[in-house]
Every structure is written in structure tokens, then in C-alpha cells.
Amino acid sequence: MPLIAPSLLAADFANLRRDCERVNDSEADWFHLDVMDGHFVPNISFGLPVIEAIKRHARKPLDVHLMIEKPERYLEDFKNAGADILTVHLEASPHLHRSLQAIHSLMMKAGVALNPHTPVNLLREVLPMIDVVCLMSVNPGFGGQKFIEQTYAKIRELRSMIDASDSPAKIEIDGGVNQDNAGPLVKAGADVLVAGSSVFKAEQPRQAISELKEAG
Ligand code: DX5
Ligand code: ZN
């Protein structure tokens, strides 16, 4: 069964505590938190104080997805805010190797996210250092977008790269994930499903999470 990481980007920000409790009381595994800076991506979401507030209520690991330029400037701040898994974008990281070392030395799991156009083979040299590869299955910046079908080919290629290596990396899929594509994604090799709209826009978020888990 896949790990499920509901994305709080689709939560009701005026009822964030209630939505955190819904995730706590569900079969979800991680909280997925999308940080956007208005530069790396066109949108601005939330930052450190909101993550600190979520940390006070969350009873599951915080999976923090940085969609920001120069993420290396903020690794320690996100650790202090409560991140357990910290993901930087390859496209924003000219010194990715150094950032992965720094994340590990701060005692967090290290993730690398790839935009839809970025080939998975660019990860080859650092794969053993990565705990989570986040394959973006939409262009990052907004929730509620349509899943990009080309992602399946990337999952299969990455799955064989990981299986042929010593890497502990899990494959996480982010964007447009729902109860219909969860099964095929896991079959292609995904380990973690991020889901925003298909959880928080559902009438029963807890039920929606359970359906994603079962479908996978
Ligand atoms: C997109 C974010 C996603 C987003 C997913 O830039 O990285 O995590 O919240 O939202 P849905 O599931 O609605 O596509
Ligand atoms: Zn995300």
C-alpha cells in the first residue's frame, strides 16, 4: 500500500487546526506542506510561521516541499519549524549535493523534486543520498491541476534506476493524484501519493484518504 501525504495547500486555512486533526485521525502517513515564494513558482503560499503552527497539532511527519529559489539559505529554519522530510527542487539547486548533505546533517530526510520537463537520469550521481524523489505530475505552483500522463514513463524509469542501486529513495507523486489514478501510479512504481484537492475538496476527507490508500 502507498504512503498517503495530504497536501494542506487545499485545506481551509481558516480551519487549519480542524484540517490537521482530520489528517491525524485518518490513514494518512505524512503532512505534505507546499512552500512557494512567487519566484521559483508564480504563486505564494505559506512559510515558516504556518509550518510551526501545524507542527504543534500534527501527529505525523511533516513533508515540506520547498518551491523556492536558493532553498539552501533556509534549510536550518525549516528544521527549526518542524520539518521531518525536506525537499528541494533540482532546478533551484546548482549545488544539490551540498544541500542534500546539509539536510542530512540537520537530521532530516532529504527529498529532491523534479519538474515535469526534468529527466530522472539527472539524479543518477546523487541517488544514494536521496530519501524521497518527488516527481511533479503537474507544473508546480497550484493545486487542482490536471495530471500529466508522461509521469508514468518517468516513474517506471526511476523505479528501475532505484532498484538497480543502493538508494533508499521512495518515489513520491505530486499533482493531480486522485482515487482513479492512485492504483495505476502504484502499479508503475510509486511509493508515496500526495493529494490536495482529492482529499480536502471531498465531502469526507478521511474517507477520501482511505480510498486513496485502498486504491493503491
Ligand atoms: C503543486 C503542489 C502540490 C499540490 C497538489 O505545486 O506541489 O502538492 O498541493 O495539489 P492537487 O492534489 O490538488 O493537484
Ligand atoms: Zn507539493
Number of helices: 8
| Spatial strand order of the main sheet | 1-8-7-6-5-4-3-2
Share of residues in helices: 25-40%
Instruction: Choose one word for the global shape.
Output: globular
Radius of gyration: 16 Å
**Each distinct ligand:** D-xylitol-5-phosphate, zinc ion
Give me the CATH architecture, please: Alpha-Beta Barrel
The total of beta strands comes to 8
CATH superfamily: Aldolase class I
- Tell me about the biggest sheet? 8 strands, parallel
Structurally, how many domains make up the residues?
Answer: 1
CATH class: Alpha Beta
CATH topology: TIM Barrel
Element order: H for helix, E for strand: EHEHEHEHEEHEHEHH
* Average pLDDT for all residues: 98
Unreliably modeled segments: none
Q: Please state the structural category.
A: alpha/beta
Distance between the termini: 6 Å
Describe the overall structure.
By secondary structure, this protein is of the alpha/beta class. It has a single domain (3-215), classed as TIM Barrel, CATH 3.20.20. Helix content is 33%, strand content 19%. An 8-stranded parallel β-sheet has the order 1-8-7-6-5-4-3-2. Helix 5 (151-163) links the parallel strand 6 (132-136) and strand 7. Helix 2 runs parallel beside helix 3. It is globular, with a radius of gyration of 16 Å. The relative contact order is 0.18. The model has no long low-confidence stretch (mean pLDDT 98). Residues 7, 9-10, 32, 34, 65, 138, 140-145, 174-177, 194-198 line the site of D-xylitol-5-phosphate (DX5). The site of zinc ion has 6 residues, from strand 2.
